Amino acid sequence: MLKRTEEKERLVGLDNAGSNRQGRWLVRGVSFEIKRGEIVTLIGPNGSGKSTSARMALGLVRPDEGLVTTRSDLRVGYVPQKMSIDRTMPLTVERLMTLTGSPSRKEVADALAETGIAHLAKAEVQHLSGGEFQRALLARAIARKPDLLVLDEPVQGVDYNGEIALYELIGEIRDRSGCGVLLISHDLHVVMAATDTVVCLNGHVCCTGTPEMVSQSAEYQRLFGVRGSGALAIYTHHHDHTHLPDGRVLHQDGSVTDSCHPDDGHHHGHDHQHGADCSCGHDHSRLVLPKTISKDANDA
Ligand SMILES: Nc1ncnc2c1ncn2[C@@H]1O[C@H](COP(=O)(O)OP(=O)(O)OP(=O)(O)O)[C@@H](O)[C@H]1O
């Protein structure tokens, strides 16, 4: 008898969902689902309805049309787009972890270790770099052991190498914990190919699919106006280095450098291609778009 492949558990599903405020549709016709172990990324220009769609998925906004179904007792870990912290108030990373929940000391320590900032447990939040702060917020979210991890613009205030390191970390967390991940991004510089599904929004779903499929769709290219040298490059490489929490790069030969370049002598067996915008060029399975796309998107 044939054994059916086991279906991954569906955590959240939106079916033609829409949200209306005072007669205006903020977004409508949104359909996607997130299963356990999957990464779904919502992309789109400012005001395109990414946060509204995510809020519908989380049950924070009730859809005015369509259907949203959520697994009962779904545990969500949320990394907000902004978090206002009184910079004059002393607040350690450890304390930040317990502001809105009550994880045990071990859960706090594990989450800080997993996000690579165990050494910053006693540090003041106001002294953290952009990348360290994002990791602290991520640690706070994963300490809850979520079924679904939601990250709204997780790479804000983070430089290019830090951005790649953060995306890699999110992928590792998914691999280790098996949680589902919903990412929201309008800075399209890096959308990791580890993303299973990209949903491209502009008040409605313009296109949806794998990063490769979406990048090639006419709707996507119309929306983001990919111009001139702004060609897309899909990277599929083998892993030969690791991005450290502080943005530096640990190479296979044990050396650590501030950044990573194909010709820096640390990489062997170049079996990959580089795009026009490649400042790193190795080992990531990701879709890279030029920085200018964010501006193009706003112009669109
Ligand atoms: N509660 C609300 N009441 C009225 N309008 C709203 C409300 N929330 C959002 N909007 C509007 O809905 C549209 C979509 O907003 P949303 O925050 O979902 O977009 P976004 O894609 O996440 O944008 P950004 O990238 O700027 O964060 C915007 O025009 C916004 O001004």
From TrEMBL:
Region called Disordered, residue ranges: 255-275
Protein's UniProt keywords contain Signal: no
Coiled coil: none
Record GO biological process: response to zinc ion; zinc ion transport
SUPFAM superfamilies for the chain: P-loop containing nucleoside triphosphate hydrolases (SSF52540)
UniProt cross-references to PROSITE patterns, sorted A to Z: ABC_TRANSPORTER_1, ABC_TRANSPORTER_2
Positions of the ABC transporter domain: 12-227
Keywords: ATP-binding, Cell membrane, Ion transport, Membrane, Nucleotide-binding, Translocase, Transport, Zinc, Zinc transport
Family the entry assigns: Belongs to the ABC transporter superfamily.
Protein name: Metal ABC transporter ATP-binding protein
